[in-house]
Amino acid sequence: VEDVAYTPTSPTVGATLTFQIRVRNVGGGSAGLFYISLSGLAGTQYASVSSLAPGAAVTVNLQLPLSAATETFTITADATGRVAEADETNNTRQITVTAVQPPLSLSIATDKPSYTVGEAIRITLNLNRPNYYVYVVELDPAGRAILIFPNYWERDPRLPSGTTVLPRLGTYQIRASEPTGTERLFAFAADRAIPYFPTSFPTPSFPVLSTNGAAFLNQVRSWLAGNVPSGNWAEASTSVTIQPLANQPPVARFTFSPANPLVNQWITFDATSSYDPDGTIVSYSWDFGNGATATGSRVTKRYSAAGTYTVTLTVTDNRGATNSTSQTVTVTAPNQPPVASFTFSPANPDPGDTITFDASASHDPDGTIVSYAWNFGDGNTASGVTVTHVYASAGTYTVTLTVTDNQGATATAQKTIQVGEVTTLPGMPVIDKPGIYVWGDPDQHWHVTVAGDPSWPSPRKFQVILESPGAFQNRVVTGAAPATTLTTSGGVTKLTWEGTVGAGWVDLRFDLAGATHMQLTLYLDLDGDGIPKPVREQDRPKLVYLRNCKVNPPYNPFSIIAPRGATAPLPNQNFRLGYCVGGTYPNCTYVTWDIEHWERELGCR
């Protein structure tokens, strides 16, 4: 084998080489038919030569592919040993061919051009050299640079040659995320690690490399150009569109309280349980079914008329979608209480007479009366629209009727009934007008008599308060009135007697022992306002009448003080009458008059 040449002279792995092989007959005789062979990793090729004269040469072309980056090919003349030669050692020649390495190439692509938020993305990389460092960076629509590969799950940036699809592991996914719009994916490959990318990943996420992604990518390119030979680094990119999810409408919900509102009662409408599954609610609009509207997640409303109203709430989310819901609100008028009214006959009964009480005139303006309860003022009661009762003894009695309607409201009516003739007590002054009479009987007992008026439609309240350092003894109440109560504080005993009086009178008899004075506070609801104490101070003494002369005291409250030298005040003595002008009872500075002088000055009534 005299010479071997091949083309192309700078092949790449896999390229087909054409070898030009020249064989010369250096012997003294002619060579008959023989074969020339070319052997390599891919096999052996042969060429036949029919004859070759002494000194003559022949050139043949044989082809084999370059199967490795460096491969040695063997060429043999007379490969099959058909020619007898004096020297067989020069029949073989070898040639080694080294492939030229192509520039580094890299490509990146996604499995589709467009994704909705939340959809999985698959990234395909093609690399023509093995074990090169590859980095994939997302430049999102907001301009941020985000590292996609390597990452927490796949930490080694080196990839094999050929095709790699990310993610390679089933333990994570690359998903489209907001912001929406066009984003670009950049891939960098180099024969060494690029220092701008992290080498540790402490959290399972895709780290943001820079909020100025374009500037960051330019830094990477600048470093590659200055530190890595040309052909040993590459960049590729592709674009994808991130689309928003189809907007889900908000969900409108609300509650209201109270559940059964009344006319003019404030109702609270609360829509805070409304929500938007993929965003936020930006407005709440209310229609109250009567022409009124409002906005806000929590509002109040009241209706001026009873009725059934359809309340509609409309909510709008941050992308303009709306949703509505309605509920019926039933507004009722407030319950009006019943009206209690009754009559009785005969009008002037005697003890033992059967008296008929008739409440059929009672009525309920917006419902029905369901019960009638009677109190006859003598400890007996009854129920029903029409009832009868017999009083065993003469006296003045207050009859009370209480009616209850179907919604629980009540009303009361009272009347005073005189059974038998009107009686008087020994020494009692003539009761000629409503008021409180203070007097004494022939046995020197004190009396406080509270007299009402037959013209009053119902009994009225009175309040009697007696105070003294002494004791109120031998107390007797006459008439339909409650008993007295006693309390003691700071050495002063207070007697309280409170109740109501209509036609007729009630009387408290008592004795004062162990003290020379007492203070009396006496009030009666003459004006019918429901409060015993008159509003005006000057009206308070006018409702009190003293002894049979029936003069008014100078003030109310007032004090009765025993004459000088007496151990206790008695009603028929010339006791002193006064009131406190300084201090509080019993530590008072008094202004006083003798009762007889006071009676002469004012004159008896």
Average pLDDT for all residues = 94
What is the β-strand count? 45
Terminal Cα span = 171 Å
What is the beta-strand fraction?
A: over 45%
Radius of gyration: 61 Å
What would your notes on this structure say?
With 605 residues, this protein is mainly beta. The protein has 5 domains: 3-98, Immunoglobulins (Immunoglobulin-like, Sandwich), CATH 2.60.40.10; 106-243, Immunoglobulin-like (Sandwich); 255-331, Immunoglobulins (Immunoglobulin-like, Sandwich), CATH 2.60.40.10; 343-419, Immunoglobulin-like, CATH 2.60.40; 435-602, no CATH class. The protein has 2 helices and 45 strands. Strands 9, 12, 13, 14, 17, 18 and 19 form a 7-stranded mixed β-sheet that branches. Strands 38-39-36-41-43-44-45 form a 7-stranded antiparallel β-sheet. Strand 12 (132-139) and strand 13 (145-149) form a beta hairpin. The chain starts with a strand and ends with a helix. The mean pLDDT is 94.
